[in-house]
Write a structure and sequence with these properties.
By secondary structure, the chain is an all-alpha fold. The protein has a two-stranded antiparallel sheet. Helix 2 packs antiparallel against helix 10.
Length: 289
Amino acid sequence: MKKAVFFAVLAAALYALNAPLSKLLLQSVPPTMMAGFLYLGAGIGMALMGFVRSKTGRGTREARLTRKDLPYTLGMIILDIAAPIFLMIGLSRTTAANASLLNNFEIVATSLIAMIVFREKIGKQLWIAIGLVTLASALLSVESAGCFCFSIGSLFVLLACVCWGLENNCTRCLSKSDPLEIVVIKGLCSGVGSVLIGFAVGERLPALQDILLILLLGFVAYGLSIYFYVYAQRDLGAAKTSAYYAVAPFIGVFLSLVIFREIPGVIFLAALAIMITGTWMINRTQSGR
C-alpha cells in the first residue's frame, strides 16, 4: 500500500513539472512543435521501456487493443493532438502558475462528459465541488481585478482541459488493455500529428538541444507520470489514486511561483482557496466518504 501511495504522489510530482518547464522552453520553441515533441518523448521513452521489459522477461501479459477499440483509439489520438497544442498556446499567453491551477478544470470536464455520454450520476456534493472549481477557473481567466476581460491564455488552457476531459472518457473505454501500449500509441501518433500540424502552420523545427530537452520532459512529465499512475491505481483503486494525484496542479503552482519568482495577486489567492476546497470535495466524493 505504501508503495502504491508513493507511486501516486510521484506521478503527480512528475506531471507538475510540465507547466513551469514547458513555459521556460516556450521562450525559444513554437507551441505546436513543443506539444508534438512532448508527446513524442512520452511515446519513444515508453516504447524503449517496453522493449527493455520484454527482453529482461519482466513484462506481464496484458490485453491488446482490438479492432473494436479503433473508434476510441482514434478519438484519443485526435484529442491528444489538440489538447497539448491548446495548453502550449495558453502557457505562452498566461503565467505557469495560472495554467497549473487551471488544470483542475479537467476534473469538471471529465465529470460532465461522463454524465452526459455515459449517464453517470452526479450527487449534490459533487455538483457543489464542480461549481467551486468552475468559479475558481473563471476568476483565473480574468485579466485583472479592475478588468472583466477574459485572458486568452487562460481560455486556451480551459479548452485543453475540455479536450482532455473528452480524452479521459475515450481512454476509460480502453482501460482493460495494456496501459504501456496505450501510452506508446498515444505518444507516437499524437506527437507526429502535432509536429506535422506545426510544419503546416509554418513553425520551424526547434534547435537540437531544445528537442532533446523537450523529449526528456515529455518522457518524464507524460510517459513516466502515466506509467506510475496506472500502477498506483491497480492497488489503490481509481478514487484513491485520483485523490493523491490531485496534488499535481498545486505542486505545479508552487514550482511556477519559485521558478519565475511570481508574486500572486488577490484574485489568484482567492481562486487558489476556492480551487483547494472544490478539489477536496471532489476527492471526498470520489472516495465515498
